[in-house]
Amino acid sequence: MIRILFVCTGNIFRSRFAEEVFNHLCKTKNVNATAFSAGLQVGKYRQRKMYKPALIELKRLEIIPSRSDEDSIHINDIDISIYDQIICMDRQEHKPMVDSNQFLSSYAIKYWDIVDMPKVSSQISLPKCYKKVDELVKQLH
Q1: pLDDT in tens, 104-126
Q2: Which of 11, 43, 80, 115 sits between 20 and 30 A of 51, alpha carbons compared?
Q3: 80 by DSSP, 3-state: which?
Q4: Single pTM value for the model
Q5: H-helix or E-strand containing 65?
Q6: Where are the domains of the chain?
Q7: Contact, 102 vs 65, CB < 8 A?
C-alpha cells in the first residue's frame, strides 16, 4: 500500500480536496494507495472543517468526502514517517513553513504549484489540483 500525505496551510481546502480526490480515484481505478492530509499552521484558523468551495467542487465531481466533518489536523500531530510521499500544495507558500519546522527537516518533500485563495480563485486552483492528483494516480497505476 502506497501512502501519500497532502499538506497545505490550514488543512481545510487544497490538501483536503487532494486527499478526497486521490482516495476516490484510487478506489475507482483499483490502485493500491491511500492519502491523508494535514496542515502546517492549523492553529491560526478558526475554520477547522473542510472549506465550502472544496465541498462544492467535490459534489460537482460526484465525490462523497469521507472526512468532511472532521477537524483539520496539524502535521506535527501525526506520524509522517508512514508516508511514501509528502506533497505540499504550493512551494512559495509552504517551503518557508517546512524549513522552519524541525519535525520535517529529514523528509523529502515535493511541492506543487496550487496557489490558495484569495490570490487564485477556487475555480482555477481546484481543477489544477484535480489534474495533479489524477496525474499522480496514473503514475501509481
Answers
A1: 988 999 999 999 877 878 888 99
A2: 80
A3: helix
A4: 0.94
A5: none
A6: 2-140
A7: no
109 φ/ψ angles, rounded to the nearest 5 degrees: -115, 130
**E-strand stretches of 30-82:** 33-39
Distances (CA, A) of 67 to 53, 64, 134: 15, 9, 20
Q: Which CATH superfamily is domain 2-140 in?
A: Response regulator (3.40.50.2300)
Question: Average pLDDT, whole number, for the chain?
Answer: 93
How far apart CA 103 and CA 1 sit, in angstroms, is 24
Q: Is 97 exposed, middle or buried (0-12, 13-18, 19+ CB in 10 A)?
A: middle
Residue 47 confidence (pLDDT): 60
Q: What is the pLDDT of residue 48?
A: 77
- Match 481546484 to its residue by C-alpha cell: 126
